[in-house]
Specification:
The chain has about 230 residues and is an all-alpha fold. It has 15 helices and no strands. α13 runs antiparallel to α14 (about 210-225). About 25% of the residues are buried.
């Protein structure tokens, strides 16, 4: 009985088990990645750039935002700053995950490349996930995102524009999902995104859209730091 228990514990932390555990993430990533490929194609971004973003950037919300900013004619520096602000949360997630997992420095570096909102949430459910198990979860998630991007590009070139342009709603549903997830059980924090929305609307009348969005994000973060402290506890 003891031997069987040990074997079960070992198998549940293997690379193969990690890939199996990541299947629910795959079912969520594929349709969103396909939508990203379609929308990027319709925005006249080259397939090479779209795939390169999925391979090298691998950040769903940031990639959608980058495509949207590109279609609006936003300059590269404004785009870098705006997308960078969106990804600042990865510093917090990375620090938390590195503290949780027990692995070598080399493994920590590799695992940091595959950390996303979804893989972080899944792996955080384990008290101390094994590196091999974490790599399995991250690899299958990463491959599904890249595969979905390629499928989306292929679909974007053959689908009628009326159908493919309708998939642009994916960007709004993605950001709304992220917002609702962040506000779960913290409805009092709704004033933070609302203040950013109002600021972006007003600033867009005087500034370039990219700068307006950047300043609106900074304003929301500032307001949240000043008056959202108690609600965050």
């Amino acid at each position: 009985m003891t031997t069987k228990g040990v074997n079960t514990m070992i198998s549940s932390t293997s690379f193969k088990d990690g890939m199996k555990k990541g299947i629910p993430i795959v079912t969520g990533y594929l349709p969103i990645a396909i939508a990203y490929g379609v929308i990027g194609t319709q925005a006249n971004l080259s397939p090479l750039i779209l795939v390169a973003m999925s391979v090298l950037v691998y950040a769903g919300a940031a990639q959608f935002m980058a495509v949207n900013l590109f279609s609006l004619g936003i300059g590269p520096w404004e785009m870098i700053l705006t997308v960078g602000m969106l990804n600042l949360r990865h510093f917090v997630m990375g620090l938390s995950f590195q503290h949780k997992i027990r692995s070598s420095q080399k493994d920590r570096l590799v695992l940091s490349l595959g950390l996303t909102d979804e893989t972080f949430a899944l792996l955080s459910a384990d008290e101390a996930p094994e590196p091999a198990y974490a790599k399995g979860v991250m690899l299958i998630s990463y491959l599904s995102w890249v595969l979905g991007t390629v499928i989306g590009i292929l679909f974007g070139e053959v689908l009628p524009e009326v159908v493919s342009s309708g998939m642009a709603i994916a960007i709004y549903t993605l950001f709304i999902t992220l917002l609702l997830s962040a506000l779960q059980g913290r409805a009092r924090l709704l004033f933070i995104p609302l203040s950013s929305m109002a600021a972006n609307t007003l600033l867009s009348l005087f500034l370039a859209k990219g700068l307006a969005m950047l300043f609106a994000i900074l304003l929301g973060a500032f307001i949240g730091a000043l008056w959202g402290g108690e609600s965050l506890d």
